[in-house]
C-alpha cells in the first residue's frame, strides 16, 4: 500500500512541477517581468488560482504574465505542450538532484527513498494516534474521578 501511495505522490509532485514549468517555459521574450499581480487586467482576487499565482510571482519570482499585461488563465494546454512541460520539469528535478548531490540515475532508488520517507511519516502518524488514544483514556479516568469528588 505504501508503494502505491508513494507512486501517487511522485505523480502529484511531477504534475505540480509541470504546472509551474508551464508558466515559465514559454519564450522569455513573450513573458514580461513582474513582481506583483497588481494592475493586471485579467486577474481578480476572486479567481480560484489567485493565491497560488500570487505566490508563484511574488515569492518564487516566476514570470507568468504576457507583455500585453494578461495572464490568460483560461487558455488551454495541449497534450504536446504538456509533454514538453513534463520533460522540462524532469530536467529541473534532475538539476535539483545534481545541485544537492543526489544521484537520479536510478529512478527506483528515488522511489525507494520516497517509500522509506512515506513509511516513516505513516509510522509517526500512527504513533501520534496511539498517544492521543492514551491521553483520551487518561482524560476519561480523570473525568470519572472528578465526578466522584464532592463539589
Task: Describe the 3D structure.
The protein has 151 residues and is mainly alpha-helical. It has a domain of 104 residues. 65% of the residues lie in helices and 0% in strands. It is built from 4 helices and no strands. The longest helix has 42 residues.
Features:
single chain, mainly alpha
Write the layout of secondary structure elements.
Blueprint: H1 2-25, H2 50-59, H3 79-100, H4 107-148
Nutshell version of this structure?
The chain has 151 residues and is mainly alpha-helical. It has 4 helices and no strands.
Instruction: State the major sheet.
Output: none
Strand content: under 5%
Query: What's the N-to-C terminus distance?
Result: 52 Å
**Ranges with pLDDT <50 over ≥5 residues?**
23-32
Number of helices: 4
Radius of gyration: 24 Å
What does the overall shape look like?
A: flat
Q: What's the β-strand tally? A: 0
Along the chain, the helix and strand elements come as HHHH
Question: How does the helix and strand content classify structurally?
Answer: mainly alpha
As a percent range, the share of helical residues equals: 55-70%
Amino acid at each position: 500500500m505504501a508503494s502505491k501511495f508513494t507512486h501517487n505522490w511522485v505523480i502529484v509532485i511531477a504534475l505540480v512541477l509541470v504546472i509551474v514549468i508551464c508558466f515559465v517555459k514559454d519564450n522569455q521574450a513573450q513573458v514580461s517581468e513582474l513582481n506583483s499581480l497588481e494592475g493586471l487586467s485579467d486577474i481578480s482576487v476572486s479567481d480560484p488560482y489567485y493565491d497560488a499565482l500570487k505566490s508563484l510571482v511574488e515569492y518564487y519570482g516566476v514570470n507568468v504574465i504576457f507583455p500585453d499585461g494578461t495572464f490568460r488563465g483560461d487558455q488551454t494546454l495541449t497534450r504536446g505542450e504538456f509533454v514538453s512541460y513534463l520533460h522540462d520539469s524532469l530536467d529541473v528535478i534532475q538539476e535539483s538532484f545534481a545541485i544537492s548531490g543526489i544521484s537520479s540515475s536510478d529512478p527506483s532508488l528515488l522511489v525507494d527513498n520516497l517509500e522509506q520517507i512515506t513509511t516513516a511519516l505513516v509510522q509517526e502518524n500512527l504513533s501520534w494516534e496511539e498517544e492521543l488514544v492514551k491521553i483520551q483514556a487518561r482524560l476519561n479516568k480523570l473525568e470519572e474521578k472528578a465526578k466522584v469528588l464532592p463539589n
